[in-house]
Amino acid sequence: MPKHQTTEKYKPHDKFIMFNEDPDLKPIKVDLPTPPDPKEIIGYGLAPEKQMFKRPKMPTKLYKLNSDKKIPHNEKSEILREDHEYYAEEIAFVQQEWYRRINGVWYYINGKPTFIPGIFYFYLCYWNVGNKRNNGLPDYRDRDRKFFIFSDFCEKDNKCYGFVYPKHRREGATTKAACWNYEYISRREKVRGGIQSMTDSHAGMVFQKHLIPGWRKIPFFFKPVWEGSTNPKSELSMNAPAMRITRTNMGSDEMEDLGSTIDYESSTEGAYDGSRLERYHADEVGKTKSVDVYKRHLVARECMTFLDSIIGKAIYTSTSGEMVKGGGEQFKKLITTSDYYDRDDNGRTTSGLYTLFIPADEGFKVDKYGMSLKEKSRQYLLNERKKALKDEDFEKLNESTRQYPLRLRDCFRNASDQDNFDIKIIQDMLDKYQFENNDAVRGDFMWKDGVTDSEVVFYPRSNGRFLVSYQFPNPQQANSSRIFRGKKIPGNADLFRSGGDTFKFKTTESGKKSLGGGATFMKRDPAIDPDSKPIEDWETHRFVATYLHKPQTKDEYCEDMLMMCVYYGSMMVPEINVPAIWDHFERRGYQGYLFYAIDRTNG
């Protein structure tokens, strides 16, 4: 086929990538660079079906020099410099690879101009992952390309400390983060990269099984001189090895070195406290049980800060463990405080990080070009869940969902060993409200126009004390009451029932104010929800308002409970051990709103 007919089949390049296209997140648009002249893109002139990622072949003399174990590592670069005419082609190759490592390179992949970021190129061509194919080097996968494009995006953002990456099982994130750590540290003077994980021993495993094997296979022109053995156990020190002074070497120039290091520390919160970190990798943060990973992040963040400037970057990688028991709760907090669009006045997110989520159907199955077969992957993963559900193996269902999440909320499935409930219904509800509740509105109940004992009105506000899922469609239906035996009683007592959990003291032993709790429950209406209607579809028989707040005083809390009852026309079941609510209702003349299963005066 003539070349012009081949190139006519080429596709236009992507101008940007959209990340986090997930219902639980807000998408992030990352612009891509403009490609060079088509003839300068690797693979130009080939038929699209033959355009795949291919590593450059190292020139023969450079390959032999790199493989020669008799020549000390630190002398190989000197050999190139001293005999630059003999090694002209080899030197040109080294310069080309350094350029690509720093600036990236363009390839045609199945007819489309595709930008390969420098660090991704370094990973693909030089980082040993133990792959039986490709001489231990990784396969090209578009999912990995997205990972490194996002890391580069965070690198260039001076308001960002890095990103948190909830991922699917055996996706290679730990190895990619190890490469990311080394690639930066190995070309900077006197900088430090750090590693922590869910346990001390696991951090050592990340260092010894993911960082060191990758480093060991690096060619000499990408490997600074180092101190110690070729199999360091706890620190990769890029210092020149100590040299014994003799008569022959006295006065000679010292070997040039970077003076940079990569090490790992214990999993404790303060392990790196007081250090300066230019790179930080926290692995398996979603499975860390013994340490609060969010507090540990705050310590690490300070290590990556100088005055008001960010001087380091971090990557947090993990599949998710069980909520609370398995470390998922703090992992979720790290994610929800890393919202790209929720920033403080300094332009930073609460955590300082961004969240990156790539669903498991990307990279799970790929074609020969490394592109994700999303539909096949998704169907396979859904079939696995379907089988577990059919077998009523809810433990397997939830574990599979967490390990291979198709959306962010899948990462936080709880384990299910309960036999007395319909776990599927419960879990569906937990999934629905994992990150936000679109059926509820936050706000406050307040006396209309500030006139006490008039009418109670619900005012929506983002920092309100109540979360309300039912407001009367007709405002005149609210505040229903009547007079019975000279006392004012609620008019909807047959429809609603409220409860309150009063705090005993103004502050806890730790000095923090206690939480006051409360809720109003809508009773079942058989006319709306008959026995023939599935319970998961009922519109009644549910909580319609909840309250969890730290008020300044008990009276403020009790007045909130009173206004909630007045609005719904509901009776209040007061807590017996702490009589603050009933005392407040009686003092305010609303004793008719109190409900006692046993008469108060009879105990």
The overall strand count is 22
Q: How much helicity do the residues have?
A: 25-40%
Span of the ends, CA to CA = 97 Å
Reported for the largest beta sheet, the result is: 7 strands, mixed
What is the strand arrangement across the widest sheet? 7-8-6-9-12-5-13
Helix count, per DSSP?
15
Strand content: 15-25%
Poorly predicted runs: 243-253, 416-421, 505-511
Alpha-beta classification: alpha/beta
Shape: elongated
Question: Average pLDDT value?
Answer: 88
How would you explain this protein's 3D organization?
- There is one protein chain.
- Helix content is 29%, strand content 17%.
- The protein has 15 helices and 22 strands.
- A seven-stranded mixed β-sheet has the order 7-8-6-9-12-5-13, sandwiched between helices.
- The protein is elongated, with a radius of gyration of 31 Å.
- Residues 243-253, 416-421 and 505-511 have low confidence and may be disordered.
